[in-house]
Amino acid sequence: MLGPMTTVAVANQKGGVAKTTTVHALGVGMAERGKRILLVDLDPQASLTWACGVDPDALEASIHDVLLKRAKVTDVLHVLEPPAPLEVDGKAGRTGTLHLLPSTIDLAGAELHLLTKTGREYVLRKALAKVVDDYDRVLIDCPPSLGILTINGLTAADEVVIPLQCESLSQRGVGQLLDTIEDVRDYTNEDLQVRGAIATLFDGRTKLAHQVVEQVRREYGVAVLEPFVPKSVKVAEAPAKGRSVLTHAPRSRSAEAYRDLAAQLLARKAKRT
Ligand SMILES: Nc1ncnc2c1ncn2[C@@H]1O[C@H](COP(=O)(O)OP(=O)(O)OP(=O)(O)O)[C@@H](O)[C@H]1O
Ligand SMILES: [Mg+2]
Fold it and tell me: How many Cβ atoms from other residues are within 10 Å of residue 214's Cβ?
C-alpha cells in the first residue's frame, strides 16, 4: 500500500489542457510551503522535464529505465532548485524540496514493452512504493491518452486531478476519463478518488467558460476546484525559461491561483490505508 493520500495523478486524455503546467505549478506551490515533492513525468513528450529546465535529450537515464526495471527511482531522479519559501507570520518558512523523475522520448517504447508483461498496470506503483515515504506529495503528469502509461499513473495514485480547458461545451472526454477511472477502481486500484477538476486557461469574460464549469459539475458530478486558473501569457512564457509560473511571475493571478490550489490539495487530512 502506498502511504497516506500522497500520490496525485493529473490526467486528461485531451491534449493541451494544461496537465503539465498544472503538475509543475502545484509542485512548486507545495514546495514553497516547505513540502517534499516528487514530480513524475510520465509522458514521452517530456514536456514537464523540459519545463523543469532539464534537457530530455541529454539524459543518461529516465523513467523509461525505471519502468523497464533497469534502474531505481533514486538513481534516475533530478534534484531541482527549490523555490523560495513563502513567509509564515512575517518570517521565511521552511525550504521545501523538489525532485523530478524525468522522461525522454524512449518512454514511447515502454508502452509496447509493457503491453506484453504480466502486471503491467502496476509497474509505476511498485517503483514509487519504494520512495513515497520520502515525500509529502508525488505528482504524476500523465500523457494525453488513456493507454497503459496513464493506467500506470492512475494505478499508482491515491487521487486524480482533472485539468479542464473551458473553451468548448463538448467535454465528452471527461466522461471517457471517468469510465477509465471506474475501470481502474474495478481492477487495479480500488481506493482511487477523484479529487476534482481544475479549470485552466480560464477566460472569465466569456459566458462559455462559466457554462463549461457548470456543465461538468452537473453532468459528471465532478467538483471543480476554485479559484479557476486564468489564461495568461505569463504561464505560456515560463516553460521556455525552465520555470513554473510561480517563479516566473510570482505575483500574477495565475500563480496565485495555483498557489491557492496547492494549499487546498495539501490541506486534506491524510487518510491512512
Ligand atoms: N493558464 C494558462 N495561460 C496561458 N497559457 C497556458 C496556461 N496554461 C497552460 N498554458 C500553455 O498551454 C499549452 C499547453 O499546456 P500544457 O503543456 O501544460 O498542456 P498538457 O495538457 O500537458 O498538454 P499535452 O496533452 O500535450 O501533454 C502550453 O504551451 C502552456 O504553456
Ligand atoms: Mg503535458
Answer: 10
